[in-house]
């Protein structure tokens, strides 16, 4: 019986990279599954409690750092990155510096990236299948216990910076990551070398000093955690430090010198929706739940729900100017059905009443 000819995996890896670029990714890299160093770093981070309420970071045992436990048969990983920056950093900084404007992390301004990237990764897997026939694989986009940044670093897509984000010498850090776990023995790319040097700009700029040491982020202090992952009250000492940031925080990326090489996204789906890149706080605070659900449909923002949306904006309003419109908007929410919302509204009104 004739045997199917074994694929030329070196040639195939080059084809995968070519197909990936054609599908809209900016770079494709390949790594093995050896993540022992990253596993140790993760365990130390968890032991310090830096994950806060993100129990899912500790829920899956070793599956996060040992890919074959998550997807049986995995021997190599295809890692992909896609630029998402929707506007210039100058415009982003202008919004951040305006107290009455609502600042939303730039990754969340357009369509939720999960579906878009997963669809592209599936198309890439389909191309491989067309070339060599059926093979074992599973695609991930921030949807399972995957150490995506450590994998991308091993695949040569960039290095993990002191702020814990991945940085690419030619593209900065404004990009998403996705992976295909595969049973194909593809040749690995070289791990990216680190180029942060003595720079500590991200540590110094962090509004809440959440980057407690190089490469160590205490999520419990991170504004992205406080506005997105935290379900309850935002700790009072940290509220003034949030400024006008209502969903996530980009300060450590905005200050990073490598982002002078960042490129704007080519994806129409990442274009800001509903003017969220420069909307006013009062305008967004006045959204009732139905309007919130309608205008965040297909957006990453929707996952926090209307109550946390109001919680976050109340804090931002309390950190701003004691204008008639801000006080009026907050006063209308004083009797909101949610205790969480009422608490943060009262805090904001007290702050504005006592502003110097």
Order of helices and strands: HEHHEHEHEHEEEHEEHEHHHHHH
Number of strands: 10
Strand content: 5-15%
Report the principal-axis shape.
elongated
Question: How big is the Rg?
Answer: 22 Å
Largest sheet report: 4 strands, antiparallel
Question: Runs with pLDDT <50, length 5+?
Answer: none
Individual helix count: 14
Structural class: alpha+beta
Instruction: Give the overall average pLDDT.
Output: 96
What kind of oligomer do you see?
single chain
Q: Which percent bin holds the helix content?
A: 25-40%
Q: How would you write the strand order of the largest sheet?
A: 1-2-7-4
What distance lies between the first and last C-alpha atoms, to the nearest angstrom? 87 Å
Question: Could you outline the blueprint of secondary structure elements for this entry?
Answer:
Blueprint: H1 9-22, E1 27-31, H2 36-47, H3 67-70, E2 76-83, H4 89-97, E3 103-104, H5 113-132, E4 137-140, H6 148-154, E5 159-160, E6 166-167, E7 175-182, H7 201-205, E8 211-213, E9 216-217, H8 223-229, E10 245-247, H9 251-254, H10 281-285, H11 289-295, H12 305-318, H13 324-331, H14 339-353
Parallel strand pairs: 3-10
Antiparallel strand pairs: 1-2, 2-7, 4-7, 5-6, 8-9
């Amino acid at each position: 019986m004739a045997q199917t000819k074994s694929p030329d995996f070196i040639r195939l890896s080059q084809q995968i990279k070519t197909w990936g670029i054609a599908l809209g990714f900016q770079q494709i890299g390949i790594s093995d599954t050896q993540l022992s160093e990253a596993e140790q770093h993760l365990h130390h981070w968890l032991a310090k409690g830096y994950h806060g309420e993100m129990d899912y970071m500790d829920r899956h045992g070793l599956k996060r750092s040992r890919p074959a436990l998550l997807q049986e048969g995995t021997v190599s990983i295809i890692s992909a990155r896609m630029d998402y920056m929707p506007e210039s950093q100058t415009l982003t900084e202008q919004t951040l510096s305006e107290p009455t404007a609502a600042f939303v992390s730039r990754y969340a301004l357009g369509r939720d990236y999960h579906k878009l990237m997963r669809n592209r990764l599936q198309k890439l897997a389909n191309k491989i299948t067309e070339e060599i026939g059926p093979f074992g694989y599973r695609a991930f986009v921030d949807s399972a216990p995957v150490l995506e940044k450590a994998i991308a670093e091993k695949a040569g897509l960039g290095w993990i910076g002191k702020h814990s984000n991945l940085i690419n010498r030619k593209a900065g850090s404004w990009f998403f990551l996705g992976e295909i776990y595969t049973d194909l023995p593809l040749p690995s790319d070289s791990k990216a070398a680190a180029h942060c040097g003595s720079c500590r700009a991200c540590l110094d700029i962090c509004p809440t000093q959440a980057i407690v040491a190089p490469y160590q982020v205490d999520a419990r202090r991170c504004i992205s955690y406080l506005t997105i992952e935290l379900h309850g009250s935002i700790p009072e000492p940290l509220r003034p430090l949030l400024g006008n940031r209502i969903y996530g925080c980009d300060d450590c990326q905005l200050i990073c010198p490598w982002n002078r090489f960042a490129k704007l996204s080519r994806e129409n789906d990442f274009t800001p929706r509903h003017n969220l890149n420069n909307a006013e706080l009062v305008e967004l605070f006045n959204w009732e739940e139905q309007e919130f659900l309608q205008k965040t449909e297909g957006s990453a923002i929707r996952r926090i729900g209307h109550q946390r949306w109001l919680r976050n904006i109340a804090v931002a309003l309390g950190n701003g100017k004691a204008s008639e419109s801000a006080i009026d908007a907050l006063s209308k929410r004083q009797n909101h059905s949610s205790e969480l919302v009422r608490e943060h509204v009262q805090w904001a009104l007290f702050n504005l009443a006592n502003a110097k």
